[in-house]
Design goal:
The structure holds two protein chains of two kinds. By secondary structure, chain A is of the alpha/beta class. Chain A contains two helices and three strands; from the N terminus they run E-H-E-H-E. Chain A is flat. The radius of gyration of chain B is 32 Å and the shape is elongated. Classes of the chains: A alpha/beta, B alpha/beta.
Chain lengths: 67, 568
């Protein structure tokens, strides 16, 4: 049986805005895919482009840098 | 020493327990293949942040001699600091701990208990991989200098100085002109009908002069500032003697005020110096000197036009105080010669304070013409205007008084460059948050008050100055030490190529360049650990403590674990 495609999204969330936004999504009981394991960073600019390349090599279907 | 990881899963009352199978989490974490050579202590608890929970955690850390700690609980925004506090009571370095957010970002976003439990396990697994790469960090304590430098001795600067100066705290008040008092000192009256007269201001000025803890420097500008909250080294320069003075201060308050828009730069305001067109500032001066308005020929005008909003459209914001001060001038004209015809050309009447409406209404009772214009132009003393209704009209008066928009002082830009601050698109200083953090800047220890952050009146400038004084009093307590951020960036000298990319991206001005060794150096006391420089460094020579590449990479690895079956 063929499985439905469920993308793996890698996400880097800035501590000050988007990480707090993700918390707010939880407080409001919004539902989103379980595959996402948010990675907290002190600032979205911390995300070195190398992480994106490594992420794709490791099989990410999409990468979200929230800042 | 072998690694021993303690993993404590909080049920958060029913918040987590009702949506995540906590027992299964504990069971599966204990069995994780990746950690079979590590000692694990996995337990659940009803409420880790409670008094009892904290005590439990403290005992667990001590009894089990944990080397690493995971708290699977709520968002770090809520209780990261609580658990750091627990670590500090034990021998475990607080930077060997990590909180895993299984409430907001797991339990609450997945309605299916099975899937939520699966995610909680993956999330905790990721935290465990990361925590093994964390390293202990140690806080430093720095002595502070409680003294304060205030730039600008206008009303905001004076108020901040008077509020701050006292036992154990000196204030250095510098002013680029030759006397303290600023622009408010030039006013013939503050809103007199409201019980505010220049006498109140004079009293403040004399208090500044007599206060032994306030050191005033007139004809003085800021030459250079280096350092950070608690430890600034400041160079002052006397504009006349060119003499330089070095002082030390713990905080810097910028109260450099505003300037006025040049109405002559407008095309539709075509007038020369010989015309009877004055700015409100000049009108104030006339009232102050001989309590009446005088035309260039020495006579009193029989008709006066007051024009609001000069340059309002060009600068793109309302200057907030012009409507009420033009009304004050109208009152003064009426009081001195009630027969003078007064035409008040306004666009929108801005009356933001609780007293303003009454002030306006008393004026309306005195035969003053309020004309709401859409467009206005000036040729000498003759005024062409389009009323709000669209009707075009022309009139001529003996004298015109303009209310030009307030604009940022030129010194604002100089200070921005010197102190590496941010400006708003209007040219005023940018506060970190206009509502929540309105008198700070993006640099710790540097504060803004008065009309350099946005147009404001005297009362608001005083409120801001007192707010700044409050912030400084709580941040710089004489005799106490400060603990700077420990999760800062560091540059590995051997790899630094001296390209200076990091200097351009650092928002805090925390990086300086050592010319002799041709490398960049981070000032740890200023650095806030945002990691901007890490992302920009082409040679990979910068690392941010507690957010290193290897630590984050563990999280990337776990988030994308191969063969992970995720059913959404």
């Amino acid at each position: 049986m063929e499985k439905e495609f469920s993308p793996k999204i890698l996400s880097f969330l800035c501590k000050w805005c988007s990480y707090t936004g993700a918390d707010l999504a939880g407080i409001n009981r919004l539902q989103y895919p379980t595959s996402i394991l948010p990675i907290k960073v002190m600032c979205s600019s911390r995300v070195d482009p190398v992480f994106l390349i490594k992420g794709y090599f490791r099989g990410a279907d999409g990468i979200l840098v929230g800042g | 020493m072998s690694e021993k990881i303690g993993i404590y899963v909080c049920e958060c009352g029913p918040n987590i327990a009702s949506r995540v199978d906590v027992d299964r989490v504990v069971e599966e974490i204990e069995k994780l293949e990746d950690f079979k050579d590590k000692e694990l202590v996995v337990k659940k608890h009803k409420l880790l942040c409670s008094v009892e929970g904290k005590k439990f955690l403290e005992n667990e850390i001590n009894e089990n001699e944990l080397t690493h700690l995971i708290c699977a609980a709520c968002s770090p925004t809520d209780h990261d600091s609580t658990f750091i506090g627990v670590c500090k009571k034990t021998n475990l370095n607080p930077y060997m701990y990590k909180i895993v957010n299984i409430r907001e970002q797991c339990a609450w976003i997945i309605s299916d208990k099975e899937r939520a439990t699966d995610k909680a396990i993956r999330y905790i697994h990721s935290g465990m991989s990361r925590v093994l790469y964390q390293e202990p960090l140690y806080e430093k304590q720095l002595d502070i200098n409680p003294d304060v430098l205030i730039v600008g001795a206008g009303i905001a600067g004076i108020e901040a100085a008077l509020t701050l100066a006292g036992k154990d705290r000196k204030v250095f008040l510098i002013e680029k002109t030759s006397e303290i008092g600023g622009k408010s000192k030039k006013l013939h009256e503050l809103l007199q009908r409201q019980g505010v007269t220049p006498a109140n201001l004079k009293r403040k000025i004399s208090k500044v002069k007599s206060n032994q803890n306030i050191y005033s420097y007139t004809d003085t500008v800021l030459e250079n500032v280096i350092g950070f909250l608690g430890n600034f080294e400041v160079t002052l320069k006397n504009t006349k003697s060119k003499e330089q003075t070095e002082i030390l201060s713990g905080a810097v308050v910028l109260a450099n005020g505003y300037e006025l828009f040049d109405s002559k730069s407008l095309e539709n305001f075509n007038y020369s110096n010989s015309d009877n067109v004055f700015t409100a500032e000049e009108a104030e001066k006339m009232f102050k000197e001989d309590s009446k308005l005088t035309m260039r020929n020495g006579k009193e005008p029989s008709s006066v036009a007051l024009i609001h909003c000069v340059g309002r459209k060009e600068v793109g914001y309302c200057s907030k105080i012009c409507c009420s001060y033009l009304q004050k001038i109208a009152h003064s004209i009426y009081d001195h010669s009630p027969k003078t015809e007064i035409l008040d050309f306004y666009k929108d009447m801005c009356l933001p304070n609780k007293e303003d409406d009454h002030f306006y209404k008393t004026l309306k009772r005195k035969s003053i013409d309020f004309i709401r214009f859409e467009d206005i132009s000036l040729k000498g003393n003759s005024i062409n205007y389009t009323e709000k209704s669209g009707l075009k009209k022309t009139t001529s008066v003996d004298m015109v008084i303009l209310a030009p928009a307030m604009i940022p002082a030129q010194s604002t830009n100089t200070l921005k460059k010197m102190l590496n601050l941010e400006l708003h698109e209007t040219g005023y200083f940018q506060e970190p948050h206009v509502k929540i953090n309105p008198v700070a800047t993006n640099t710790d220890g540097i504060f803004i008050a008065g009309a350099n952050r946005s147009p404001c009146g005297i009362s608001e400038a005083i409120i801001q100055a007192q707010a700044v004084a409050g912030k400084i009093s709580t941040q710089l307590i004489p005799g106490e030490k400060i603990i700077p951020e420990v999760k800062v960036s560091e540059i590995l000298e051997a790899y630094c190529t001296g390209c200076k990319s990091c200097l351009d991206v650092c928002k805090y001005g925390a990086i300086y360049f050592d010319e002799r060794r041709a490398i960049s150096i981070v000032n740890e006391a200023i650095c806030r650990g945002c990691g901007n420089c890490v992302g920009a460094c082409p040679s990979g020579s910068i690392r941010t403590k507690h957010f290193t590449n290897s630590q984050l990479y563990q999280e990337v690895k776990e988030a994308l674990r191969q063969g992970e079956q995720i059913n959404d």
